[in-house]
Amino acid sequence: MIEHFNIIILVLMIITAIISLQVKDLLSASMIFGIYSFLICLLWAEMGAVDVAFTEAAVGAGVSAVFLIATVYNTKRRSSD
Amino acid sequence: MKWLALIAVIATGSLLIYAVSDFPDWGSASSPANGGVEGAGRSVSQTFIEETDTLTHVPNIVTAVLADYRGYDTMFETVVILAAGMAIFAILRVLRDTEKPVDQSKHDPSIDGDHQRIIIGTTCRLLIPVIQLFALYVVAHGHHSPGGGFQGGVILGASFILLGLATDLETAIARFSEKQFIGLACVGIFIYAGFGVLGQFYGRGFLDYGALQPIFMTDGEPMARSHAMLGVEVGVAFTVTAIMFAIYANLASKGELKNGL
Amino acid sequence: MIQETIITIISTLLILCGLIFFLGAAVGLLRFPDFYTRMHAAGKGDTLSSFLVVLGFAVYQLHDFKFTEAGFKENWWVLLLILKLIGICAFIMITSPTSTHALMNAGWEDDIEPELKHKDANELEKDYPRK
Prior knowledge:
heterotrimer; A: mainly alpha; 3 helices; B: mainly alpha; 10 helices; 66% helix; globular
């Protein structure tokens, strides 16, 4: 059962990674990157690496999303490529 | 150019996937990490699992490995965070006044002062103390449960970022000023390195916490290592808190530290 | 035995109710016409469904708990776990509506127009003038 859980999370991670690279709107890209961080946090928590999952939840899904949004707010919102 | 990059990425990715087939199975007892190699003796992870509790009296092996066995690594990780914060500070911070100075006496630095957002202000006043208390718990309890200086520092910094997001940057700066966060970032590194240098005064190596037994007045060296690890975690937490808030404040206001997001 | 069955039924019911509200929130997010109605669906549905699901988890933890004095001495940590889960419930109930309010407020001040049947029926403009 827990193996299926792993596979679902890994597939979702690949999808979010591709979308966050593909999307033109940088604000959406940073939000989707936050979702990616949250998924990898789930995966680590499930594998038993609670310390790493805690760090990822605090840094990846929490603070770095705020940093990215602050940067997008002060630069431009559309990606050129 | 884009196609060239795509080809390079696909080539590297397929090489990595090819290499994965040589890995031992996940959780396999015969992998090198679990000590399954014949004739190699006891593996590193087995040593950590068996000896951490007797050598350091720290139940959370991850914290013991990070703060004691790999003390150098964590110290320079903290220095890297400080350097990242200082780099952002050096690039973004505008020191001269670009516009006419804002009348600071008119600005009301209370949480729901001139923002007219009573719901957000009340929620912040309710939540920020709880978040900060939880962050201090994570720092202080880091060697008994998951957590530690880095995680606790990030949560503590995030509570100030929440204040800055919910009201405005001046309100947060009024509580955690620029002098304070730059000072705190450096003090954290000094605390960490200070514990290392203290060991040298007793004729032992740098970051050898067992030498601090006379200072902590504990029964044996393991307990002294446990106490020193707590002190080191506090140092890491200081640096991380200050740098997280410094990065946010500089990014959000283009380095002017006023009129943030 | 009968106690375990009752606990399983209650927690399953709570989690199922939560999932139904989640479905409502997702359908509302996709089907509603403009920003404000979508936030309305997402905010309300998300808050209640997360609350119900976490409450269901809290009830499920009672499986390891025996309602006798000896059981209490042995398994007191289950009550601690339930207290933590209820703490998460309270956290969700406070933060989720506030973040919905903050988003709505930001949208209003950013001149997002609600979808209206009659163009001049927007009474809110008089009561809450934009900055």
